[in-house]
Fold each of these.
Amino acid sequence: SGRLSVIDRSVDSQTGTIRIRVTFPNPQNVLRAGMTCDLRVQNNTPGGSLLVPYKAVVEQMGEYFAFVVRGTNVSQQRIVLGMSINDKVVVLSGLKEGDQIVTEGVQKLRDNSPVTVQDPANSSVASSPKQH
């Protein structure tokens, strides 16, 4: 176990990472000055996080929306976003696990537009419906 000693104030916009310094006990001198590593921190937030492609998000007047598939039509759903991770974004509220969302052609959609659902490519949450 180590302890956090310094956190950089800025987030790298290309990688979504924050530089930190962690101090570890080093009685056998295995760790040397200047060594770097990738560190993954466990999220202790209760429940899971919902991650969707950022291209599925529509911004209108400072609010964010996603188009949720309801049968053969879509419904525009207001969502609250968390942090971005590469080309995806965490959805804090407004969607639930299992919702199918439009990831292609969202700029052409309106509330209650008809869609055809295709097999999801890479995500169990997002689908790739296309507009008729």
Amino acid sequence: MARTARTMTYAIVGGVAVALVAAVGFYFSRPGEQQAQSTTDTIDTASAAAATDRIANLGETGEVEPDDMVMGSADAPVTIIEYASLTCPHCARFHEDVFPQLREAYIDSGQVRFVFREVYFDQLGLFSGALARCAGEDRYFGMIDLLLGQQGQWARQPNIRDALLEMTKLGLVAGMDEDTMQACLTDEEVLAGMTRTYQRHAERDGINSTPSFIIDGELHGNMSFEDFSRIIDAALDEQS
């Protein structure tokens, strides 16, 4: 069964942001800590901050919004919006087993425009979502794949400090440096804004579990590639 969403109230958001800021600050201030080496170029900090700081005015269910992270052609006849928590095992399995087939068959062929929206169950979910956005639009989906593919490495740690260490290693592998990550992940206003946007999306679209999918405006639960294919093909037939 998909994981049930526990929507944060705004009163909790500040506490989450402060806890994250404190944890991140503690981690980055430790002397002598050896970090994993980056295997790609460092991103531009200003671009990462701008990408992270955008909070959209909500449109109608199924519409692509200005701060959405999007894969596929803007002219695709079918739009799929996934709501996922980066700490959700069901989401990780979907992206390991189903999403590659979906991408090959429909997204890369220009038939589906795919949108990924983060759901924040907990501190680690919010932190990892911020880390992915910190990577910038060009590397966002690569960071999502890395976080979901290595979920057991960071999301199952016994405490927030160890989880931060493992996530930071992944960030370095993705091309971010420590200063960039610290700047992105210690901004309480950005973290609170991300959570408010998630809450408004979830309330408007009736999201109470992950992964959930809105396909051309209609809400669906987790499903197999065969079920996706049936729904997508029917939508394409209607538009032909």
Amino acid sequence: MHEIGRNPKKFIFLFLFALILNWVWETTHSVLYVHYQGGAITPFVLLRAALVDAIVILALALLAQKFKLNKSTVVVTGGLIIAIVIELWALETGRWAYTAFMPIVPILNVGLTPILQLALTGYISEKLLTVS
């Protein structure tokens, strides 16, 4: 396996695949949200969210590489932690709200699909990068 930083094609592939995968996720689960900043959840909002997700996944993979850590572990664990922090902040500040159909994680009181998103899409993207 080549390191991401030494092979720009792998770097680009990870980012693009994570972007597409997260855009699909954002689009399909957007029905579980009432609003974004009090307004409509538009295709631009979804694309921007997917772009941030792809950047986070790429940053976690590069961090793992830099410190010679297991990429899957860093991407999954980091993705879960970052997603939980984002959800707690966004709900507290009213950035978005869930519909009644959003499954909620007890104790944390955040949506299940958004906290799983970065971990799952990051894991899939990183694993695909590893075998490609």
Amino acid sequence: MQWQNRAHFFGFAAQTMRRILVDHARAQRAAKRGSGIPTVTLDEAVALPSGPDVDLIALDDALNALARMDQRQSRIVELRFFAGLTLQETAEVLDIGEATVSRDWASARAWLYRELTRS
């Protein structure tokens, strides 16, 4: 595959990692044996407030819902969480300002936290 630019590569990498992890979580959930759904511990750089463990399937569903409301925020979460990019790297990949990424990242985290902790 030929990459058009750095943004194309990181966008593809983040989407691929998301698909792999979510497919794996779904396979584990469907398995007759095993201890249940694996969770992923978020490191401090991408941690959701007060929620160290995230169900990947629930996160994927929430990200799909977020994408319907704000595609850019969804891409920021995808790049930060699944590709592990910093705020600066995310801004470079999306060709937007770091302050915009920071604001959208904070907003997306708050929205995702609310969605993932609903009873």
